[in-house]
UniProtKB/TrEMBL annotation, chains A, B:
Protein name per the record: Bifunctional protein FolD
Domain of life per record: Bacteria
Pfam families attached to this UniProt entry: THF_DHG_CYH (PF00763), THF_DHG_CYH_C (PF02882)
Protein purpose: Catalyzes the oxidation of 5,10-methylenetetrahydrofolate to 5,10-methenyltetrahydrofolate and then the hydrolysis of 5,10-methenyltetrahydrofolate to 10-formyltetrahydrofolate.
CDD domains attached to this UniProt entry: NAD_bind_m-THF_DH_Cyclohyd (cd01080)
Binding site for NADP(+): 164-166, 230
Domain Tetrahydrofolate dehydrogenase/cyclohydrolase catalytic: 5-119
UniProt entry keywords in alphabetical sequence: Amino-acid biosynthesis, Histidine biosynthesis, Hydrolase, Methionine biosynthesis, Multifunctional enzyme, NADP, One-carbon metabolism, Oxidoreductase, Purine biosynthesis
Amino acid sequence: MARILDGKAIAKQVKDELRQRVSQLRETGLVPKLVVVLVGDDAASASYVRSKSRAAQDVGIDAEVIQMPANIAEDELIRALERLNEDNTVHAVLVQLPLPAHLDTDRILMHVHPAKDVDGFHPVNIGRYATGTPLLWPCTTAGILEILERSEIPIAGRTAVIVGRSRIVGWPTAQLLLAHNATVIQCHRQTVNLREYTRQADILVAAAGQPSLIGPDDVKVGATVIDVGINRVGGHLVGDVDFAAVEEKAGAITPVPGGVGPLTVAMLMKNTVHLAEIHQREKEGFR
Amino acid sequence: MARILDGKAIAKQVKDELRQRVSQLRETGLVPKLVVVLVGDDAASASYVRSKSRAAQDVGIDAEVIQMPANIAEDELIRALERLNEDNTVHAVLVQLPLPAHLDTDRILMHVHPAKDVDGFHPVNIGRYATGTPLLWPCTTAGILEILERSEIPIAGRTAVIVGRSRIVGWPTAQLLLAHNATVIQCHRQTVNLREYTRQADILVAAAGQPSLIGPDDVKVGATVIDVGINRVGGHLVGDVDFAAVEEKAGAITPVPGGVGPLTVAMLMKNTVHLAEIHQREKEGFR
C-alpha cells in the first residue's frame, strides 16, 4: 500500500510557516499585498477568488479583489493593470482565468509586471524557467515541489513522466523537474502508447484532466504518483488516477481531493510573500 | 546503411530560396539588415562572424559588424544595443557569444529588443516557446527542423530523445519537437542509464558536446540521428555520434561536418528575413 501524500497537512505546514514570516515582515513595516482581478461573474471563478482571499487573511496577507464587468474593454483592463504595476504597496497581481472570450488572455497577461506576476505566466518569467533561475514557479507546480521535498522524495537522476503539457500545470512542472535534474519525459494527447512511458516513471505527474487515465498497469511498482486532475464525475471530485487500484502498487500517491489542490492556494500565498520580500530587498538596495 | 542527411545541400536550398525572397523584398524597397555585435578579438568568434557576413552577402542581406573593445563597459554596450533597437533600418541584432567574462550575458541579451532578437535568446522569446507560437526558433534548432521537414521525417507522435539541455541548442530543440507533437525525452549530464532512453528514440538529437557519446548500442534500428556535436579530436572535427558504426544501424543520420552546422548559418539568414518581413507588415499595419 502506498504512502498517502497528505496535501492538506502539507498546505497547513506551509501556511503556518508563512503566518510567522508575514508577522515578522509586518513588524518591519512590510505588509505583503495581493490584488486579484476578477472579470465577470462566473460562479466558479468567484468561488476560487473567495478561497484565495480567505487564505490570504489566514496568513496575514493583505488581499484586495478588484471586480470588473464582464464586458470591460481590453484597453481599460490593461490600464487597470498598469496602475497596479505602478502602485508600490501592491506586491502581487493575479488575473483570475479564464477571461471572457472577447479578451486576449496572452496580451493581458503581458501587462502584469514580471516582478508582480504571482502566477508566473508572463513570458519573461516563463523564459526564466529555461535558465533554471525563475523568479517563482506557477502555484500548482510549486506545490508539487513542496509535496516532493517535504516528503523527502528524491528528484535528481530519477525519471519523471508528465502527462499533459498545459501552460498552467503540465509544461511548467516538466521544466521544474528538469531544473531539479530529473530525466524528463513529456507526454500529451498525441503520445502513442502512453503506458510505455508512464511505466518508466519514478515520479509520475498526471495532469491531463481525464478521469481514470492512469490505472495500475500504467505505473511502476514503488513509483510516486502525483495526481493533478480535478474532474467532476457523478457529483464527486476525482483525479486522473484510479486511486484505489493504483494505491496498491505505487510507493506514494496524492489523493483527490486533498492532494495537490490545497497546495495551489498555499503556494499563491508563498509566492506573494516571496515577491514582497524581493520588492523590499530591492527598495533597500536603492537606499 | 543509413540515409545521409546532407546539411550542406539543404543549406544551399534554403539559401537559394532566400536569395529569391530577398531580391523580391528589395524590389519593394525593403533591404533586410542584420547587425552583428562582436566584443573583443577572440579568433574563433571573429571567424564565425566573418562566415555570417559572407552568408548574408551571398543571399543579399545587408550585414554590418560592430566591433567593440574587449574591455567595454556593460552600460556602454547596452546603450549601443538600444541605439540599434531604435534604428528602423535594422531588423535583426546578434550579439556574438561568448562575451568577455566581466560582462553579464543574461543582462545584455535582455537589451536586444525581442522583435530584433534573431538568435531567439531574449526571455520573452524563450517564453513564447512554451506557448508553441514563438516569433522564431534559435538558429541551430530551426536548422534541425529544416533538415527533418525537407527529409520528410515525421515528428508528431514519434519519440524524440534530446541529449543535452543547453539554452542554445538542447533545450530549445526539445521545445520545438514538443511543439511539433513528438513525445519528448530530455536527457542530460545527470541522466542515469542514458542508453535506456536513447534506444527509445525515433528521432535522437545528440547535443552534449562529447565525442563518441552515442554508439551503435545506443540507437534503435531505423532511427533518425541528428548530431549537433562539434568536437575537435586529433585535429579533426567529430560529432557526439560514432558516425561509422551508427550509420550501419540508423535509418538516417547527419554527418559532422556537413550536417547541422551549415544549417545554423543559413537559418540565421532565414530568421533575419523573417524579422524584416514582420517589421514591414507591422509598418504597413500602421499606415
